[in-house]
Write a structure and sequence with these properties.
By secondary structure, the chain is an all-alpha fold. Helices cover 98% and strands 0% of the residues. It has one helix and no strands. The chain is rod-shaped, with a radius of gyration of 50 Å. The N and C termini lie far apart (169 Å).
Length: 117
């Protein structure tokens, strides 16, 4: 009976050692997983920071595009006004040149009529 008790105690002791070893292995694996998750969390935080930085840069670029668009619109409006003013001045100049040409023709006719008389 003592032998059986010794065997039983030895079996429990061996079982306890085996279970402790397995729990140690399991605990080590959980620590490793926890470390990997911490690393992933850190990488995600890093990515989030980079995305925020990119978003900020896109906002800056968007503002610059808006400013350029406004500047282009102002310049176009200014050029359009200058073109319209130039065309008005050109028409006025043509009209004045036409009137002057008629005046010159009238003077030529008068000079010819005076020369003829």
């Amino acid at each position: 009976m003592e032998d059986k008790m010794d065997q039983l105690l030895t079996g429990f002791y061996d079982f306890k050692k085996m279970m402790e070893s397995r729990f140690d292995t399991l605990e080590s694996r959980f620590d490793s997983l926890e470390s990997r998750f911490d690393s992933l969390e850190s990488r995600f935080d890093n990515l989030e920071g980079r995305f925020n930085s990119l978003e900020s840069r896109f906002d800056i670029l968007d503002n610059r595009v808006d400013n350029l668009e406004n500047q282009m619109n102002k310049r176009f409006d200014k050029l359009d006004k200058q073109y319209k003013s130039f065309m008005k001045d050109l028409r006025t100049t043509r009209r004045m040149a036409g009137e002057n040409m008629r005046d010159v023709e009238d003077l030529d006719e008068r000079v010819e009529s005076l020369e003829a008389s």
